[in-house]
What does this fold into?
Amino acid sequence: MNRRIIQILIPAEVDRIIDKYLIYLQLEKSLSANSVDAYTRDLSKLTDFAQTENIPLDKITLKDLQQFVAQLRDIGIYARSQARIISGIKSFYKFLMFEEYIETDPTELLDAPKIGLKLPDVLTVEEIDAVLKSFDLSTSEGRRNHAMLETLYSCGLRVSELITLKVSDVYFDEGFIKVTGKGSKQRLAPISHIALKEIKNYLIDRNEIDIQKGFEDVLFQTKRGRGLSRITVFHIIKTQVEAVGIKKNISPHTFRHSFATHLLERGANLRSIQQMLGHEKITTTEIYTHIGKEHLRKAILTHHPRYGNEY
It folds into this structure.
């Protein structure tokens, strides 16, 4: 039995081993500083997963790693990025094998996703800012569209969830919205103070609309008092993206992918992002009774680029 095998879960021990691994990349592999930084970021995603699941790094199995990769896929991380992360993890476990911290390599049979044609584009934070700042806020339509896209990006919504969002689903004081997703499953999603501010401004205009029967509680309305369609939202986004000179193939779902990507890039936990994207059942009363939701809100407030900024 190899006597060097240890429970790599204690933070100090994890840090020591990772520091040793980074030195190995620099000296033995002759990687650049940028490459080492990339390996570090990818490895941090695995250590976050291990801590969340309470699994020591030296006890992770192939099944655990497949679950980790499935989480990457579920939150919208594209195949090319998944492959890069898996490559970094494989390199780390080869190092653990070389240094005799482990006896078997759990990544040996871990398959990287197949990379096909060019992947859909993701907007940068700067590009999203440019789109949102380009609306004409002197018009009611501009104020509506600004509030709508702030909500889409701040909460990582599907377009179907956006157009069915109700006024009664917005909890202004608590900082949450109630989202009805696929299969009529409901979840609570933290919403930024910026998005809430824009919704409040838009509601002043909405109160002037002659709303048709059956649409009284639908948040985002047409001028004729009906809910917006998917095609209308797509057209609004396409027009605005082109207006600011962004040459990417953008759809409403791009904002959802950008939401997940930006959170992950800034260190948000995969589990929290999964919950934000709609992988947990809830009821309308959970906003008051489910104390465990507060950790989710704190995670989003900490890591999402829209939550820490004031106008």
User: Anything to note?
Assistant: The chain is about 55% helix and 5% strand. The first helix runs from residue 11 to 27. The domain at 11-98 is CATH 1.10.150 (DNA polymerase; domain 1).
